[in-house]
Every structure is written in structure tokens, then in C-alpha cells.
Amino acid sequence: MYNETMYELGANSSVIREIFEYGKKRSAEIGKENVFDFSIGNPSVPAPRAVDEAIKELIEKMPSTELHGYTSAVGDTEVRGAIASYLNKTYGTNFSANNLYMTCGAAASLTITFNALSEEGDEVILFAPFFPEYKVFASNAGMKCVIVLCDSETLQVDLDAFEKAITEKTKAVVVNSPNNPSGVVLSEETIVKMCEILKLKQKEYNHPIFLISDEPYRELVYDDVKVPYLTKYYDNTIVCYSFSKSLSLPGERIGYILVPDEAEGSAYIYKAVCGAGRALGYVCAPSLMQFVIAKCIGCTSDISVYKKNRDVLVECFEKNGFKAAKPDGAFYLFLKSPERDAVAFCEKAKKFELLLVPSDSFGFPGYVRVASCVSPEVVKRSIPAFEKLAKEYGLNG
Ligand code: PLP
To answer: Distance from the CA of 240 to the center of ligand 1, in angstroms?
Structure first.
């Protein structure tokens, strides 16, 4: 009657979404101001003024049928050209509109890319902790997920484990820096070493291994930390980008896939991306948003708010005996659970109306993710709740 796998995915929604829904229910019961919902990566900082202005200008000046009509399946040529120019100016690359395919956000970028690359028996390497939907997207594209745990101290890639995990069947490796859920930014040293390993393995197995760079948090970095541009280190890189976080537009569903000319068989891969977009029904990303992006490329929302939130929370955790590294990017803190079972810890946190996500579904048990993209007000009001939670575990004397 229906597809069992799809039923399972629909019936068992993601843990993050479950907690987010619980938060909404709880807010209705006791008031929004009394719930500290750190569950979901929904930016609290508004989109920059440039976005509102671009929308107004487009509505005033562009014929409605054009503004709201279909663009080319791959996205408007001028929009893709504007993105390519921005990337070239920023990273010293040499892209053109022909390297870009507009999508409905990073989720679409990833599903399309997995489907475009996947052949029978292929494996994809995921570094844990990872964004849980990777497993859903890759498995649905027919790829087997091979999980490599990050170094437990630094949460950087464990290069020995990575090398051992690569087999003849490895088609792709997903990197996500800055990382959800850890906030870790991969160091240039790690990237160089990873790419050396990949180049040797490609030679050994005589086929390309693609680095899929999922980068919705690229611009969200603090304290002058740099995020190396991966196509400059490794030819077979495919970038999956989204404006959801950098421009605070997660509900507008806009992003892109970049297939550089340097990637092996790039013209074929680009066509396979077009084919996967077509098969999945993802042609022609939202037109209005495409045109907005062309006008706002290079802008970000005010990310200093996330840095402030990070600093206040890290200080609170340190003062109260919780263990969490200070992340360099994204807007998540990865807190070590004071008991082995992070699910039980999150249940206790709920007693104080703190909504945290256990790390089990990120493939790295024993931690919780704290999404610090909430408003500074929520962070401030949540401090006494964290203090009470720490007391429950005898962490703060
Ligand atoms: N990849 C990562 C690492 C994410 O954190 C998210 C969303 O939170 C996505 C992809 C999906 O992003 P989008 O909303 O643009 O589809």
C-alpha cells in the first residue's frame, strides 16, 4: 500500500524536530518566555536589511510574471554568474555560471549530489559527529554510510581512522566545517593531510573519490578563524552551499551546488546533478529568492550575536562544571553529558525547561548539542536553569 522505508522516515521524525515540537507544546502550556529551546538551528538574528530592500526593489521593478515565474531548471544565468563572481573575488577561484546549480537549500544540494554520484555498491564516509540527515539522504540515494569517529579530544578528523575507512567502494567523503553539531572548524593542516590521503587512495583504486563540502555555516566563524576553500586543496570537491544560516533565510529554501571544472568528469557530473535535480523534482529553485541572492551575495546577518551567545554560554558552562569546548564556528555548543546516557541527561534538563539534543543521532554518544542561535535574552534567562541542572549533578558544589 505504501513504501515501508518512507513510512518509517515519516513516522519517526528527527530527534531535533521532536524536541522542537515538544518546545512549541510546552510554550503553549507555560509561556514561551519560560522555555529555553536550544533544540533547532533556526537563526534568531533577522535577515540583513539588504534582503528586505532587495525584495521590495524586485517587487517594484521586476515584472511579476518574471519575478515569480520559472527560471532555467539549473537557476537563472545571471544569478549563477553573480555567485561565481563573488566566489572568485573572495577565494581567488575561476568559476562561472556553468559550474553552479541553484537548489532549495543545503538539504536539496546534498540529496541531489548523493543521487548524482551514487552507483551500486558505493560507500560514503561521514565523520561523526555529523548532521543526522546525512544518513537519510545518502541511504536514500543507495549509498552505504561508513562512519569515522572524530578525535574525542579535538573533534577534528582522526586521520588514521579516516585512512583505514577508505575502500575501493568509497565514492565520496562528506566534510562539514564549521560543523553541526560541534562548531569545530577543520584546520588547514587537517585539510591538507586529508587531501593527501585522498589523492593517494584515488591512485591506489584508480577512480575519483569526491569530497562533498557541506557548508551552510561557512561565514559563521569567530575570532578571525579562517575556513579554507576546499576546491583549492582538492580538485574532486563538490560544494553544497545554503543561504539558510548566513542570511537567516532557512524557510526560503535557497542554496546551490558547485561542480568545479577541475573535478574529474565535471561536465558529466554537472549533467548528473541536473538529472538528479530533475528526478527528485528539484528543478528551478525559488525564483524570488534567486534574484534576492544575486543582490545580496556577500552580505550576512549580524553574526556577532552568535559569538556573544557562545561566550556567555561557555562562561556559564565553565562556572558550573560542565565540559564544553569553545567552538570556532557555526552556532552550536557540544556539551559533554555528565552521565553516560545523554538521553537521560536531556530528560533531566527538561525539568528546568532546558531543551537540549542528545548526541546519539549525531553518531557520537555521550554529548548534547546546544543550539546557541537563540536570542541573547533567552541565553540570559536560561543561566539559572543551567545552574540548577549542574546542581542536580553536583557539578557546581
Ligand atoms: N547541513 C547541515 C550541516 C545543517 O546543519 C543543515 C541544517 O541545519 C543542513 C545541511 C540543511 O540546510 P538547509 O536548511 O539549507 O537545507
So the answer is: 10
